[in-house]
Amino acid sequence: MTNSEVCPIAKVERILLASDGSEFSSGAVREALNFAKWCNSHLYVMSVVETNPELEIYGPTVVEQMEKATKKHLEEIREDANKEGITCDIVTRHGEDTSRYIVEEAEKIDADVIVMGRRGRSGIKRLMMGSVTALVIGTAPCDVFVVPRAGRLSCKRILIATDGSEYSQKAARKAISIAKRCGSELMAISVAEKEDELAQTEETLKEIKRLAENEGLTVETISVKGTPYEAITTTAQVKEADLIVVGTHGRTGLKKVLMGSVAERVIALAHCTVLVAK
Question: What is the Cα–Cα distance from 137 to 134, expressed in whole angstroms?
Answer without folding.
Answer: 5
